[in-house]
């Protein structure tokens, strides 16, 4: 039976675009549907605009540091409107690059929403039906608000990049990647940040010592971090009377001047689990993301979905329906752009190049772009200790650059080593540019380097990362 195309990809994010280009390069006839902007979460409302905001936010400390180094420069003022205009021009440029790449690869793009009509047919919003030998679902995920009355008043991460103006104060709910990164970014841009995290320490799943140091640094940066705390009630401040109005005035907001809008991003009165009541200019929910599987027609065809709505796939990203594959955040494996790209490449090799390629999800490095950053690869001390006897090599110190300027900022370099094999099981770095450092360390860890391999490597002096090859005695054994 002849099909209209060899591959139909649903979703034009990092994973979908890479898979479609690789498949097209083998001579396959490929089409792709995207109902929003090309580039997906990473390019349009995630990694890229976030990192540009990280850069913007780090300039706040620089004038003070420069003065300590003898420069005669005043503190500056951040202009959100100016930055946002440039930010969106850059995102437009990148979206154009993605479109041109697809075009150049011969991939036919449909700017429409697609759903599956049967195991080999995709239906677009305008009713067009396209048959495909293989269908790849790469629809990503979306931010999820908690199940709480009036939660619609809160912003989600997508909204931050589109704000007309920065709020004066914000309550960020959550303790994961997005909550912590946004807390540091917004504090750096001059917003008064309060953060509620329901657990005992932010960044659950990361190394405890590293989490602790990041939390300490965030507090030093002026972030009012409340652990073991959540929202119990929220309402639009302007619609409240009495006590909430007083709280708003205290917070520098004049609620009687505000129209009641009932719209997200408005000033919000919040009651916390610790009993306190406050009014914030805005609330941001960074309470996790959910896979985009709704309305795709997957379950009707026999594709299995997990508890969170994620598509269940095997090691080759194949679903329970043999002609349908899925990659990236929609499968909720490791939700990172480079992983989605890897999954897309492995899919193309498996299906279009005749080389069955399982995706290697082992020892994936990642970074949280807080200030300082947290870079990590491999096992945490806690997980490694549960697995086997280990040695921990760790050092925390004030780095030269900021120490000279009188700052108490500390960094952490930490290696987890197997007592039996001497292999470095995990590396955790809390430091400015830890994302850059962990990328390099991850090569050694992925290659199975031992502590002695690290020790044989000559230090680059004077750097922060040199500590990774100069730690002689274990801090502890367990
Ligand atoms: P995470 O799953 O990392 O964090 C969600 C946070 O919200 C957790 O702290 C969670 O608490 C908390 N939470 C969940 N539900 C509720 C609730 N009902 N009330 C209060 N708190 C709640 O999600 P993010 O949205 O931060 O990020 C999503 C994914 O995106 C990440 O896992 C990561 O893979 C990716 N990402 C990667 C980045 C990077 O590489 N730098 C940057 C940003 C995102 P608890 O811990 O108790 O569950």
* Fraction of residues in β-strands: 15-25%
Question: Structural class, please?
Answer: alpha/beta
Residues in helices, as a percent range: 25-40%
In this entry the ligands are:
NADPH dihydro-nicotinamide-adenine-dinucleotide phosphate
CATH superfamily of the largest domain: FAD/NAD(P)-binding domain
Instruction: Report Rg.
Output: 24 Å
The total of helices stands at: 15
Distance between the termini: 62 Å
CATH topology title of the largest domain: FAD/NAD(P)-binding domain
The appropriate CATH architecture of the largest domain is 3-Layer(bba) Sandwich
Total separate domains: 3
Give the low-pLDDT segments.
none
Query: How many strand units?
Result: 22
Average pLDDT over all residues: 97
Q: Major β-sheet, in short? A: 7 strands, mixed
Shape: globular
Highest CATH level, the class of the largest domain: Alpha Beta
Explained architecture:
- The chain is of the alpha/beta class.
- The protein has three domains: 5-143 and 289-352, FAD/NAD(P)-binding domain, CATH 3.50.50.60; 151-285, FAD/NAD(P)-binding domain (3-Layer(bba) Sandwich); 366-477, Enolase-like, domain 1 (2-Layer Sandwich).
- The chain is built from 15 helices and 22 strands.
- A hairpin with a 5-residue loop joins strand 20 and strand 21 (424-431).
- Helix 3 packs parallel to helix 7 (177-188).
- The longest helix is centred in the first third of the chain and has 25 residues, at 80-104.
- It binds NADPH dihydro-nicotinamide-adenine-dinucleotide phosphate.
- NADPH dihydro-nicotinamide-adenine-dinucleotide phosphate (NDP) binds at residues 146, 173-179, 181, 197-199, 204, 230, 286-289, 335-336, 366-369.
């Amino acid at each position: 039976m002849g099909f209209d195309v060899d591959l139909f990809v649903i979703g034009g994010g990092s994973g979908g675009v890479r898979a479609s280009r690789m498949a097209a390069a083998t001579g396959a006839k490929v089409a792709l549907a995207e109902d929003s902007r090309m580039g997906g979460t990473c390019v349009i409302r995630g990694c890229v605009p976030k990192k540009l905001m990280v850069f913007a936010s780090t300039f706040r400390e620089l004038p003070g540091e420069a003065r300590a180094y003898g420069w005669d420069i005043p503190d500056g003022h951040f202009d959100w409107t100016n930055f946002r205009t440039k930010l969106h021009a850059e995102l437009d440029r990148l979206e154009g690059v993605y479109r041109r790449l697809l075009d150049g690869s011969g991939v036919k793009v449909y700017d429409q929403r697609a759903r599956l009509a049967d195991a080999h047919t995709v239906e677009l919003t305008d009713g067009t039906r396209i048959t495909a030998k293989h269908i790849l679902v790469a629809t990503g995920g979306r931010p999820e608000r908690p199940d709480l009355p009036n939660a619609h008043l809160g912003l989600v991460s997508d909204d931050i990049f589109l704000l007309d103006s920065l709020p004066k104060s914000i309550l960020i709910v959550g303790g994961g990647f997005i909550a912590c990164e946004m807390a540091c970014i917004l504090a750096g841009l001059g917003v008064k940040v309060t953060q509620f995290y329901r657990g005992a320490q932010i960044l659950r799943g990361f190394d405890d010592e590293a989490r602790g140091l990041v939390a300490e640094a965030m507090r030093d940066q002026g972030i009012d971090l409340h652990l073991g705390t959540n929202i119990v009630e929220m309402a639009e401040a302007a619609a409240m009377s009495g006590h909430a109005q007083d709280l708003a005035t205290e917070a520098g907001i004049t609620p009687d001047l505000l129209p009641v809008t009932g719209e997200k991003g408005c000033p919000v009165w919040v009651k916390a689990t610790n009993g306190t009541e406050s009014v914030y200019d805005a609330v941001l929910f960074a309470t996790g993301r959910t896979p985009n599987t709704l309305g795709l027609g997957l379950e009707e065809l026999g594709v299995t979905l997990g508890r969170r709505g994620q598509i269940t796939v095997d090691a080759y990203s194949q679903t329970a329906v043999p002609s349908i594959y899925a990659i990236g955040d929609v499968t909720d494996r490791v939700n990172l752009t480079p992983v989605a790209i890897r999954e897309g490449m492995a899919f193309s090799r498996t299906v279009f190049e005749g080389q069955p390629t399982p995706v290697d999800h082992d020892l994936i490095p990642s970074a949280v772009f807080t200030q300082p950053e947290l870079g990590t690869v491999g096992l945490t001390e806690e997980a490694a200790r549960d697995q086997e006897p280990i040695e921990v090599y760790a050092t925390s110190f004030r780095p030269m650059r900021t120490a000279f300027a009188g700052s108490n900022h500390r960094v952490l370099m930490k290696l987890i080593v197997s007592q039996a094999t001497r292999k470095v099981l995990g590396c955790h770095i809390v430091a400015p540019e830890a994302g850059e450092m962990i990328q390099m360390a991850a090569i050694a860890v992925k290659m199975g380097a031992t502590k002695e391999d690290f020790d044989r490597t000559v230090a680059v002096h004077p750097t922060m990362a040199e500590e990774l090859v100069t730690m002689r005695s274990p801090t502890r054994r367990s």
